[in-house]
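Quick one: structure for this chain?
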Amino acid sequence: MVEIILASKSKVRKEILDKNNINNQVKPSNVDEDIVKSSLLKNKATPEDISKNLAELKANKVSQINKDVLVLGADSVIDLDGELISKPENRKEALDILKKLNGKKHNLISSVCISKNGAMIWNFTDMATLTMKNFNENELKVYLSKIPDEILYAYNVYQIEGKGRNLFLEIKGDENTIMGLPIKKIKDYLSNYES
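Got it. Here's what it folds into:
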């Protein structure tokens, strides 16, 4: 299979590619996501639009300076009844996010984009639906106290492959999508790709 560049510093995304025997090297895009999100939100973009735009922006940015190779950009967002929920900046924000999601159903949207020579050549967006159990505030604080900082800030407020699974009553959708990379579709595309 063809080698790709992953335009992300996400350890989980890198692990998913490695586990699936996709040769890759990491070159983060360093796109300022907050500026992009706030601009898109001003234009009434949906969480799905934001996820797609960010994945494409990351892939295109890295592929402009890495000619003739495939660059994979990815982005995941939480959509709670149309409201975009971003990764927490600190533990107080993490608790606020968990309180918002508490006892409710939300969608996790993961978009991926493959670019070559600065332009998108393929993209895909998948969605999973998660229903969180009801917890009191103290239970949420105890949960957060068990999550190390690097995991909390890298994977949003729940880690589906770790302790975060216990937060949910129901999970519908692909686990790789929830972890940020709908790998099956990426593999399908790469296996049929001819340079």
